[in-house]
Amino acid sequence: MARRVVVTGLGILSPNGNSVKEAWENTKNGVNGIGPLTKAGAEGLPVHFAGELKNLDVLDHLEKKEARRLDEYAQFGVIAGDQAMADAGFEIGKEIPYDPYRFGVLVGSGIGGLDTMEKEVTKLNEKGFKRVNPLLIPMMIGNMASGQLAIKHKLHGYNTTITTACASGTHSIGDAYRLIRDGYMDAMLAGGSESPIKMLAISGFLGLHAVTTTDRLDRASIPFDAERSGFVIAEGAGVIVLEEYEAAKKRGARIYAEIGGYGATSDAYHMTAPEPSGAALAKAMQFALDEAHLKPSEVSYINAHGTSTELNDKTETMSIKSVFGEEAYKVAISSTKSMTGHALGAVGGMEAVYTVKAVEEGFIPPTINYKVPDPECDLDCTPNTGKKANIQVALSNSLGFGGHNAVLLFKKAE
């Protein structure tokens, strides 16, 4: 028998804030966390803006030795994971009320230790192999956020990492949900982390014509707007604690929301472009609804992938119409990437936090800087101003290069 799975802890590092409270309040109020690109040796790059974390001193959160041994992406993931565990009531150094072999970790990353790779390749070329950091390998690999969180919190259960580009965080939470639902685990720490604001990554995305080169901040990340010209690269992490419902209730945990469904499909079409009809994303949404035994008319809000690229926003709109029919014009949609930019493998975790908070508080965050309607993106994208709503059910969509689609369905906590 399928078990119920609930969200009991939230953690986030976002361009909109370094805590759930700060990031959510800014997102509700339409505060733009995107600003001038200052990292990655920005001089000479035709990219002007990024979603950078602000006022973050990792040594305020991690011991110096721990921080020194982790790439930036893993630092972000561990900090967000620590937040989520504390929010769920689990203290470092204290025994958890679970068999530790049934409490796992699944934190994804689309790229992994890019900061370390860039620095060490430069060192190798300039100074030779003997000067390469002996911790290069453990710092570079993409599973170390999961590994370090397990070490730190003494979690001996299922521990792995998913890399599905920009769907990594959402796949991680979805797979963690199924591990609990199907009885393999009782609790999971899951989400995504990324630190991609580097010269190499930006150069690669420029080559794909995927990032915007506009010099106007109010026209940079503009999902569903007819003048959209590419995404804004960002960094951060979003990690949540999932628990089996009865166990969470027994220990008196605060329950933010319930995960009622999860859908995952493949476009099987192209390395970088979404399949034009959006059929596979539509099927992922339908799978999530079917798993929850819900109809499209019962969904109040969709946190869209909404990257501000020409192909994604048009295709995602078509997918929603395919599943929802006329109901598509009644459901509220927004892209929080308009305020945070696109944090690649981390963004599914970050947007899961925003979607859970939307359900918990009954508030739909806006899509900011929306000015020019696009007839091909004609759904209600909650332009510029958020709004209160009775949200019983919400979806969070993620798409990744390689044709990966992942959809989470969150329900109001009973």
Automatic annotation (TrEMBL):
Q: Which residues form a coiled coil?
A: none
Q: Name one Pfam family in it.
A: ketoacyl-synt
Q: Indicate the segments forming the Ketosynthase family 3 (KS3) domain, all copies.
A: 2-412
Q: Which Gene3D superfamilies match?
A: 3.40.47.10
State any single GO MF term: 3-oxoacyl-[acyl-carrier-protein] synthase activity
Q: In which pathway does it act?
A: Lipid metabolism; fatty acid biosynthesis
**What InterPro entries does the record point to?**
3-oxoacyl-ACP_synth-2, Beta-ketoacyl_synthase, Ketoacyl_synth_AS, Ketoacyl_synth_C, Ketoacyl_synth_N, PKS_Beta-ketoAc_synthase_dom, Thiolase-like
What EC number(s) does its UniProt record assign?
A: 2.3.1.179
Quickly give the catalysed reaction.
Answer: (9Z)-hexadecenoyl-[ACP] + malonyl-[ACP] + H(+) = 3-oxo-(11Z)-octadecenoyl-[ACP] + holo-[ACP] + CO2; a fatty acyl-[ACP] + malonyl-[ACP] + H(+) = a 3-oxoacyl-[ACP] + holo-[ACP] + CO2
Enzyme superclass (EC):
transferase
User: Keywords in UniProt for this one?
Assistant: Acyltransferase, Fatty acid biosynthesis, Fatty acid metabolism, Lipid biosynthesis, Lipid metabolism, Transferase
- To which protein family does this belong? Belongs to the thiolase-like superfamily. Beta-ketoacyl-ACP synthases family.
PANTHER family from the entry?
3-OXOACYL-[ACYL-CARRIER-PROTEIN] SYNTHASE, MITOCHONDRIAL, POLYKETIDE SYNTHASE-RELATED
Q: What does this protein do?
A: Involved in the type II fatty acid elongation cycle. Catalyzes the elongation of a wide range of acyl-ACP by the addition of two carbons from malonyl-ACP to an acyl acceptor. Can efficiently catalyze the conversion of palmitoleoyl-ACP (cis-hexadec-9-enoyl-ACP) to cis-vaccenoyl-ACP (cis-octadec-11-enoyl-ACP), an essential step in the thermal regulation of fatty acid composition.
| Name used for this protein in its record | 3-oxoacyl-[acyl-carrier-protein] synthase 2
Q: Organism source for this protein? A: Christensenella tenuis
Name the gene behind this protein.
fabF
